[in-house]
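Quick start: what a row looks like.
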Amino acid sequence: MSWKSHQNGVHSPKAHFQKAVSMDTIMNAPMISDPLGLFDCSGVSDGSACAIVCTPEIARALGKTDVVTVKALQLSTSSGRETQTTDWDGSYVATTRQAAARAYKEAGITDPKTQISLSEVHDCFSITELVTMEDLGFSDDGRAVFDVLDGKFDAGGAIPCQIDGGLKCFGHPIGASGLRMAYEVYTQLLGRAGARQLSNPTIGLTHNLGGVPYQGIAAISILGLMN
């Protein structure tokens, strides 16, 4: 997963880390917390982002013809108590699953594996992205590792994930991260992503985790071109 993100980050001029990293370098990197090595962890960065959001009617009045709309926006919160018990094995994040289910319903998504063109997710660590692929329904439970190895989430895969390099390449400026994800989806949908542009994306998803502990808050947004 880290290799994939660093390959993508080469084409992101605003990424902090824009150098491809070999599989050997990743596998032989210093261990941070077994089994996570140096390249399994995102950098700590500072950053800012902003967006102007309005209704489609206002956008049209401003002369905009290529309008990207928010099809769904869902937030799920928890005290995080479930992560403090032996009942939780770390293989899923309940708030992500809850927010995703509601977002899919709001956006009319019945099969995320085929209807989502790309995703930007909270990859603070490589394992977080792996778990998120199952929480979002992109992989069946227990199968994400095989989908990763099969290239399902690579730039040329069925559901490209972190096409801009994600937190692995941008670092983790906390609040700015979520809006960066939305901007990447927006850019892709309008065909403005340059060297990392995907072929005809129609629906993109962003996913964020936050709170203390991390699993306490999950936010999902789904963006698409206006019909």
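That is the whole record. The longest helix spans residues 175-189. Residues 172 and 226 are 31 Å apart (CA to CA).
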